[in-house]
Amino acid sequence: MTIPKVLTIAGSDTSGGAGIQADLKTFQELNVYGMTALTCIVTMNPERWSHNVTPMSAELLESQLDTVLNGIGVASAKTGMLSTVEIIDAVARKIEERPLQHFVVDPVMICKGENEVLNPDTAEAILEKLVPKATVVTPNLFEASQLAKTAPIHTVEDMKEAAVKIHALGAKHVVIKGGGKLLHEKAVDLIYDGQEFELLESERIETNYIHGAGCTFSAAITAELAKGANVRTAVQNAKAFVTTAIRHGFPINSFVGPTLHAAQRLYRD
Questions:
Q1: pLDDT by residue for the chain (269 residues), tens digit each?
Q2: Is 233 in a helix, a strand, or coil?
């Protein structure tokens, strides 16, 4: 039996809901073989649930990437949290050495407040060095406004404006995740391929248990591309997968609740 091989280049979420943990659970559920290149370790203060990010060295990341890209090979790969400019540089170098058939960039940005990136240098490096290499880039509303350098996004028209600007940076396809935060009666995501816009709508699910939803969505796109789906189909399948995972999200403590990655298999709703 052959199984598509995929790679996540992302951080470790110690609580298990996001990062490489979410990616690997998604890969398993979607029948692809997942591998990892760890960029950082995220831990939480048990009393306040504040986050601490400890980066890997760029040299260690490059060794991980060599192991997978040169030693095994992949059908597709994705990024998640890339916590330093040096790490972003390392990812860009390795992808230039061994170009990928499908590369999904989830431009995770740690922010302070609603409209300010904690490390602007990493946001600029993602924009300059990784977005132009992307088959698909999957920003949320905040990340899309940062990449496109627009005002905060509140409407579908705002999403379209940002998508055009991000596509002009070199990404082949832009998928902006509106989710439940957009001023819209549905949970809306937008696909733009440089020519046409497509809105993907699903029910708005009123829940706080959405930790890792963005990672799960981009990982599902990565898995579907590896199995041979075109981008449009991959995004549609990923949206269905993450919507079901959100619908069956659950709390793990008093602070946070993740999506349920096994929900599509367990409930088929």
A1: 689 999 999 999 999 999 999 999 999 999 999 999 999 999 999 999 988 899 999 999 999 999 999 999 999 999 999 989 999 999 999 999 998 999 999 999 876 555 667 678 898 999 999 999 999 999 999 999 999 999 999 999 999 999 999 999 999 999 999 976 777 778 899 999 999 999 998 888 989 999 999 999 999 999 999 999 999 999 999 999 999 999 999 999 999 999 999 999 999 75
A2: helix
Query: CA of 170: how far to CAs of 36, 137, 174, 184, 258, in Å?
Result: 26, 10, 10, 29, 32
Q: Are strands 197-202 and 76-79 parallel, antiparallel or unpaired?
A: unpaired
User: Whole-model pTM?
Assistant: 0.96
Distance CA 107, CA 82 (A): 8
Are the beta carbons of 223 and 217 closer than 8 angstroms?
A: no
